[in-house]
What we know:
By secondary structure, the chain is an alpha/beta fold. It has helices at 2-18, 45-53, 87-92, 106-114, 127-141, 145-166, 191-198, 217-223, 238-242, 251-254, 271-283, and strands at 20-24, 30-34, 40-42, 60-62, 97-101, 120-123, 173-175, 179-180, 183-184, 202-203, 227-231, 258-261. The protein has a four-stranded parallel β-sheet with strand order 4-3-5-6, sandwiched between helices. Strands 10-7-11-12 form a four-stranded parallel β-sheet. The protein has a two-stranded antiparallel ribbon with strand order 1-2. A hairpin with a 5-residue loop joins strand 1 (20-24) and strand 2. Residues 4-17 have low confidence and may be disordered.
Amino acid sequence: MRRALLALTLLGCIFAAHASRMLTDGTGRKVTVPDHPHRIVCLVPSVTDTVFALGSGEDVVAISDYTTYPPAALKKPSIGGLVKPSIETILSFHPDLVVGTEIPGSAETAAQLETVGIPVYLVDPHGLAGILHAVDSIGQALNHASQAAALNLSLQQRIEAVKTRTGGKQAPRILVPVWYDPIITIGKHAFITEMIEAAGAKSVTDDLLPDWPQISMEALIARAPDALLLVRGGKVNIETLQKRPGWSSLAAIQGGKVYYVDNGIEVPSPFAINALEEMAEEFHP
């Protein structure tokens, strides 16, 4: 009898270890994920931030390059770049779940990992609503639905507080120079464009359809932005722009009218709400 009970106990442990659920990820793929993943690889910074925000930071065994937040994540080893991470490196961490976003190369990465039995769960966040949806989806994948609901409630309250605070105020017209040669900025459907609007300002290029449109200096001067918005510590800075041909013609450059924001504005994850609040303070002190 004791042997039979021992065998049943061991069988139960084995079953529990392999218990899983079938979910539909943000790209419509059916993915079988473990009930309780404990060796998670995050393929992009936004996923890393979300997983940590949901309380699963200790279960993360590796992250991607370009991760800057949260600080605890920087102690984790990297699996490489975002577009073509090292499959061999990922496998060396023996993950039971890999989480990423739908970016160029993600389908190929998922296919390669799934051929060796590693589940890959992808989300596809677009805009502020997309951040909340990704939190909910990743919460489902991690079996942390209650934590995701609580986090989303907090994030939604913070977003609404910013919109209430800035609603009805005169919106400064903002230019975001992503790069200066060629001049690349943000378009109508870019995540940053929505963030700027929610913070009580207006992008002067919010009528351009590409997410990252290229425009001429003449077109830029014609749009006459009130101010520039730069990422603090980013590759584009006011000193460089002042030395570039044509930029000194902008009144915003002449007057030194520049707003600064943390790089959270570039990452569609809970960390972005910090940047949203920061911009609202900058635009409407």
